[in-house]
Amino acid sequence: MEPLVLVVDDDNEIVAFLDEAIQDVGYRVRTAVNGRALPIARDEQPSVILLDIHMPGMDGIEVSRRLRADPATAHIPIVVMSTIERIHALGAQLAVDDRLPKPFTLDSLYSTLERWAPLG
Question: What are the pLDDT digits (tens) for 38-61?
């Protein structure tokens, strides 16, 4: 079965773009906004989580902290997506495995996914 990618972002255009781009190369995709990602991650055990930082309600920093605090999701690789400035400003506050600065190319998206959730 293809690896599952959980995309956590509140921007519908970015979610639609990522959903199509990721499925085009063979991954399965689930999407969520803010804290709604937590039960999906727990129940579906995605291979990797692409997580936006800036979201209404529970932001990506808090989502990543809660994922890391839960033994059922602590092992799932998290790749944060945001502007390079925001990523650098937050630094150690981010409980993530990798960073994908926005805007990113499809090549950088695919190489990041392949690093954390290789296809067959």
Answer: 999 999 999 999 999 988 899 999
d(CA 89, CA 113): 24
Q: pLDDT tens digit string along 81-104?
A: 988 788 777 777 778 999 999 899
d(CA 97, CA 14): 21
Which pTM value belongs to this model? 0.93
Contact 6, 32 (CB under 8 A): yes
State whether the Cα torsion 45-118-99-102 is positive or negative: negative
Per DSSP, what are the bridge partners of residue 32?
Answer: 8
